[in-house]
Amino acid sequence: MFVVFVVTGVVVLFAVAAVAVGRGGGLDPVESDLLRPSLPSGPISADDLDSVRFAVGFRGYRMDQVDDVLNRLGDELTERDARISELERRLAVGGEDGTTP
Predict the structure, then answer these.
(1) How many Å apart are CA 49 and CA 72, to the nearest integer?
(2) What is d(CA 14, CA 34) in angstroms, rounded to the nearest whole number?
């Protein structure tokens, strides 16, 4: 009986080792997540920040903290863009009170 358990254990161990080294059909090829997050070379919008994704490692960043910072930065960019648009509109019509600045 002991011999049966030992033989079964060796077979199971061999099967696990064979799968681990790729002899049992293997795993799909690994896709690298080490690509650098990309932003456009021109002006950055809030939508550009929404599309940024970071690689996650064992001792990686705290996702909730980075997400909070990116959300804050996205809000700031949206407010900035709205303010710039408003100022450009005022400049185009000659100032808010009708005089040129």
Answers:
(1) 10
(2) 33
CB 40 within 8 A of CB 47: no
Residue 86 to residue 21: CA distance in whole angstroms: 62
Q: Is 63 left (phi over 0), alpha (psi -120 to 50) or beta?
A: alpha
Q: What is the pLDDT of residues 24-56, one digit of tens each?
A: 565 677 666 666 677 778 888 888 888 877 777
Give the chain's radius of gyration (CA, Å). 29
Q: Rounded to the nearest 5 degrees, what angle is found at the Cα of 86, between the Cα atoms of 88 and 96?
A: 85
- Evaluated on CA atoms 55, 60, 64, 68, the torsion sign reads negative
Query: What is the rounded CA–CA span in Å between residue 2 and residue 9?
Result: 11
- For residue 84, the tally of other CB atoms under 10 A from its CB is 11
